[in-house]
Each structure stands twice: as structure tokens, then as C-alpha cells.
Design a protein that fits this description.
NUDIX_hydrolase-like_dom_sf (chains A, B), NUDIX_hydrolase_dom (chains A, B), 26% strand, WH-like_DNA-bd_sf (chains A, B), hydrolase (chains A, B), Nucleoside Triphosphate Pyrophosphohydrolase, NUDIX domain-containing protein (chains A, B), homodimer, 9 strands, two-stranded antiparallel sheet, alpha+beta, DNA-binding, Arc Repressor Mutant, subunit A
Chain lengths: 230, 230
DNA sequence: GCAATAGTGTCTTTAAGACAGTATTGG
DNA sequence: CCAATACTGTCTTAAAGACACTATTGC
């Protein structure tokens, strides 16, 4: 039995929160097709490489990050016949959530890499759609997992965690109710014992990620957007 | 720039509820590798075919179903280098939820097709893992979407819908509280006007799917299992 | 009548939303 | 002292859990 051949790529939706806004990592394409256009970072899966390994490799190449901290998960796959003019290419998209780190622009494939606030972007290929799916995934994951901490450094304040929610959801939350919810949900965060110093106002206690993987009950947005099927 | 070539398949986790238990559609493999072993239905994506179209085609081929009713969504992709002894094959798994229909065993690829209660199965390739991921997806989707109705015929009773939840989650729910929740959530179900006939006990009103896509607030399991990252 | 299943009402408990008030820093 | 931010407590409200009760059929 014979079958068609495909190329397989991984593309990354890399998100971070900086200056109170949600940003996505983009690269300017240095080769055809879509030369000069902005796109999600990504590349071909190698001959003997697992999909997740390819995603981790690309992430490390683009951001210089490889250790723990942050979060990487598979998002979805895209394989419309005309999505890449070079031929039949299926891409497996991954979603990465990272603390706000300076990005070493010295990526290997990309001419330039840059954090851009999410919004109306006009990306190469079907990357606008992939980004939209990644954003919706990130927004809904904050509801029922403690993953917001992936956007924070190892030790963070409750206020910083709340600002992550506010940036990702685009709505403001009551600091007092948020504090109560986070600290009273077992395994969401655990105190490090330290506090902030040198900030205006009363010093805040520092926390690290807890060991819970699921929030029960969840922390719901007011207006949940539609999810996407098929 | 050269890059490795892959074959791309779609595999289907097709679920239904029959006799109060959750069942998955399996086929016995009629060719190597894993000849004679049970596996998820699936096949190669054609040269000019979208991934979702391939999934719909395979579903139609295996179940004879093609119209509306039921639900089909992308689940995840699997591409470990050694997952298929024939070479580098990436599979895009889809999850289908169907009402309990007789399956015409005259599938094209498969020697036999059969509904099997979910549980300890020993499937070909990495299909045990794919099935486990599909089950977890189905379980969690019932929490925050009205998708349970995809397991039901076009008109159904609240009790039938509850039995779907009980089969998929493996726990029993209070019929009265369930009734209140379902009928008071806007867009979950809408009455057809009809009732059951000839059943023991008081006739039950019939409902069809509502137009909501999200349940807010959700209908939570007691014990949510871990989700799976990366 | 009785068994069976459908559907309603009510009380309790949990947790979210709103928001007053207290605590601890820097200036 | 005041401004600023962190944190606690209280009241109200929404909604789940438990469960008594009524409704409508077949026998």
C-alpha cells in the first residue's frame, strides 16, 4: 500500500506577560515563502525526533530557554492542503507559557525575533488562526489549572499572579477576592517565606507554584468565549 | 532546504453509550503491522485532503454515518519515531461522540469492527494512550459543554442524558438535581413538546440539543482526574 | 389500589461578588 | 502624619447537594 508523503513542522505559540499585557513571540521570516513577514517560530521535525522534542528544541533555539519553569503543551495540528505553497506540510502547534525573559534575538533560523502584544497581527501561513487557538487555550487553561504561575518567576506575589490573569483575560479582578481564592485553594501556591522589599506599600509575601494540577472549583471568567470544534 | 518525509494518518476515538456503559469502536487489523490485533479505526490522509476531511471520511467509512448528529473534534497528534514499524508516521487523532447506532461491520479497511466497553484493552501501536487521552477529553468536555447530547438521538429524555453522564464519568448523579441543572441552564436543551410512550412510569418530556456551546457555570465531576501536559 | 419513573420544592452548604476595615511599609 | 499596597473579615447572593414530596403513567 502506498501513501502520500508530507513534511511535518512544529510551530510555537510562545506567550508571556510584560508590562501588564499579553505578548506573543514572533520571528520575521528570512526565506521564502512569506519572506519578510512575521510568523510564529517553528521548524521542521527531524528524521528521528519526537514531536515534543522538536517543540522543546525550537523553543530553546528561539528563546535560549531550556530548563524548567514555564510550560509547554501540544495545542493542535493544522494540515489544510494549501496552507504551505511548498507542498504538503502538516504542522503540530505547541503552546508555551513563559515568564518575562529577555529574548536573545540571536535565533538560528530567524532574522529577528520580537515580543508583540497580542491583537490584530497579520502573520504568515495560517498562523493567525493558530495564534487565536493558542490564546483561547491559554485563557481557558487559567480557569481550571494553576498554570498562571508559569508566566511568573519562581517566586512571585499574589498581586503578580493576579496581573497575569488580568493580562490574559483582559478583565480586572478584585484583589481581595482573588487573594482569598488563590490562598484558600489547596495546592495552587505555597509560601516561600520571603517577602518583597523596596516596593512602595506593605511588603507582599512571596509564593511558588503549588503541586495541584487542577483547580477545583475553577476560577471562572465572567464571559467565557466560544470554544472551537472540529 | 531539505527535510525528512513523513506519512500522516488520522485515527479515531469513536465513543458511544450503550447499555449504560461507555464503548469505543475498534477494528481488527487486516494487515501488517499488528495483524489481527485490535486498534482504533483510521487510515492515511490523502494527497489533497484536509485533516478534518480525512477524519470525516474515515468515520463515514467505518460507521456508515456522515450526516449531522454526533460530534467530531481534533484530539491530539502522536509522532514518536518508533510508533510505527513501517517508518515515520505521524497520526492526528480525532474524537467522535455518537449516539448508539448499529455499526455496519462492512468497513472497507477493517476485517471486523466492534463496540467494546472501555477498560483494559491492549491495542496496536500507541492506541492505548490515544484512547486514554480521548476518554479524558470526553470526560472533561461533558463538564463544561452540552456535548453529552451528542451521545443521544435527536430527541431524548433528561434521564437518558443523565445516563450518558453516569456512563462517561462512572459515577451516579442525583436525578433531581441533574434535572434542575439541565433545565435551568439556558441553551443546554430545549423541549420538543413530545413525551415518551409505553415506558413504565410517568412519561418523560423529550428534549433536543440547545444552542449553547459552553456551560456556565459548568457541571463538575466530584473527582476530576489529572490532565496531561506536553 | 401499587410500582415505577418524572418532575417540583425546600433546606443546607459552599463559594463567589462586593466591599469595609486593618496592617505594614516608604516618604 | 500620608500614600500606597497587602491582607482579613463580613455580608449578600448564586448555585450545588441532599432529600421530601407530588404527578402521571401501566398494571
Amino acid at each position: 500500500m502506498s501513501y502520500p508523503v508530507f513534511a511535518v513542522t512544529v510551530d510555537l505559540v510562545v506567550l508571556t506577560v510584560r508590562e501588564g499585557r499579553l505578548h506573543v513571540l514572533l520571528v520575521r521570516r528570512g526565506c521564502e515563502p512569506f519572506l519578510g513577514r512575521w510568523a510564529l517560530p517553528g521548524g521542521f521535525v527531524r528524521a528521528d525526533e519526537d514531536l515534543a522534542a522538536a517543540a522543546r528544541r525550537e523553543l530553546a533555539e528561539e528563546t535560549g530557554l531550556d530548563g524548567p519553569g514555564g510550560h509547554l503543551e501540544q495545542l493542535a495540528s493544522y494540515g489544510a492542503p494549501e496552507r504551505d505553497p511548498r507542498g504538503r506540510v502538516v504542522t503540530v502547534a505547541y503552546l508555551a507559557l513563559l515568564p518575562d525573559l529577555p529574548v536573545p534575538t540571536a535565533g538560528t533560523d530567524a532574522a529577528e525575533a520580537e515580543w508583540r502584544p497580542v491583537g490584530r497581527l497579520d502573520l504568515a501561513f495560517d498562523h493567525d488562526r493558530i495564534l487565536a487557538d493558542g490564546l483561547e487555550r491559554a485563557r481557558s487553561k487559567l480557569e481550571y489549572t494553576p498554570l498562571a504561575a508559569a508566566f511568573c518567576p519562581p517566586a512571585f506575589t499574589i498581586a503578580a499572579l493576579r496581573q497575569v490573569y488580568e493580562a490574559v483575560w483582559g478583565e480586572s479582578l478584585d484583589p481581595r477576592n482573588f487573594h482569598r481564592k488563590v490562598t484558600s485553594t489547596p495546592g495552587f501556591v505555597s509560601p516561600t517565606g520571603g517577602t518583597t522589599e523596596g516596593e512602595p506599600g506593605r511588603p507582599a509575601r512571596l509564593y511558588r507554584r503549588g503541586d495541584a494540577t487542577l483547580l477545583n472549583p475553577p476560577l471562572l471568567r465572567r464571559k467565557a468565549l466560544d470554544d472551537r470544534s472540529e
